[in-house]
């Protein structure tokens, strides 16, 4: 692999604008790459971490196996309990939407579980949100409405089998 070229610190702001533009153009791989360049120059850059996380979650519908653990790793680098809870909710919600869209055996159970996880994270974020910030409430309501509109999404059945013999 060729050696990556470093981003100059003076270019960070403009690079982040480009990353957001690529996200809006539905080009999350390009946005992800730019965020990785920004983070190589400034490892604790919070806007770059947020944009990177969103670019990774934009890729969930494609079913990329490593996107979810990579998104969770980014959350661990975020400053503040609110951001960690809120963006954990975003990861779970977008994962649920990807599961719902892809379908397949067991997807309705998995999507239901992921929406429930998202709602739990949003409740944690709501409890510690800054004054005037109801983002977590809005996301929780979105998940609740999706569950209401999709009655096929339900918890996995509990198996009532007998324990195996030793």
**N-C termini distance:** 53 Å
Number of helices: 7
Largest sheet: none
Oligomeric status: single chain
The count of domains is 2
How much of the sequence lies in strands comes to: under 5%
C-alpha Rg, in Å? 18 Å
Number of strands: 0
Mean pLDDT: 93
Give the uncertain stretches in residue-range form. none
Shape: globular
| Structural class assignment | mainly alpha
Order of helices and strands: HHHHHHH
The percentage helix is: 55-70%
Strand and helix map with partners:
Layout: H1 12-24, H2 28-41, H3 46-57, H4 67-76, H5 81-102, H6 107-127, H7 135-149
Helix pairs in contact: 1-2, 1-3, 2-3, 3-4, 3-5, 4-5, 5-6, 5-7, 6-7
Q: Gist?
A:
This protein is an all-alpha fold and 166 residues long. It has helices at residues 12-24, 28-41, 46-57, 67-76, 81-102, 107-127, 135-149. The protein has 2 domains: 8-79, Serine Threonine Protein Phosphatase 5, Tetratricopeptide repeat (Alpha Horseshoe), CATH 1.25.40; 80-153.
Can you walk me through this structure?
Helices cover 64% and strands 0% of the residues. With 166 residues, it is mainly alpha-helical. The chain has two domains: 72 residues, Serine Threonine Protein Phosphatase 5, Tetratricopeptide repeat (Alpha Horseshoe), CATH 1.25.40; 74 residues. The chain is globular and about 65 Å long. It starts with 11 loop residues before the first helix and ends in a 17-residue tail after the last helix. The mean pLDDT is 93.
């Amino acid at each position: 692999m060729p050696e990556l070229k470093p981003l100059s610190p003076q270019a960070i702001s403009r690079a982040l604008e480009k990353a957001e533009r690529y996200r809006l153009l539905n080009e999350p791989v390009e946005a992800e790459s730019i965020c990785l360049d920004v983070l190589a120059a400034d490892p604790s850059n919070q806007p770059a971490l947020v944009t990177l996380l969103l670019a990774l979650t934009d890729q969930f519908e494609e079913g990329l196996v490593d996107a979810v653990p990579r998104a969770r790793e980014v959350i661990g680098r975020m400053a503040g309990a609110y951001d960690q809870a809120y963006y954990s909710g975003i990861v779970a919600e977008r994962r649920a939407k990807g599961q719902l869209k892809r379908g397949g055996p067991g997807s309705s159970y998995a999507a239901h579980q992921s929406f429930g996880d998202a709602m739990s994270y949003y409740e944690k974020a709501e409890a510690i949100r800054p004054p005037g910030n109801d983002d977590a409430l809005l996301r929780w309501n979105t998940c609740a409405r999706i569950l209401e509109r999709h009655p096929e999404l339900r918890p996995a059945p509990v198996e009532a089998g007998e324990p195996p013999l030793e």
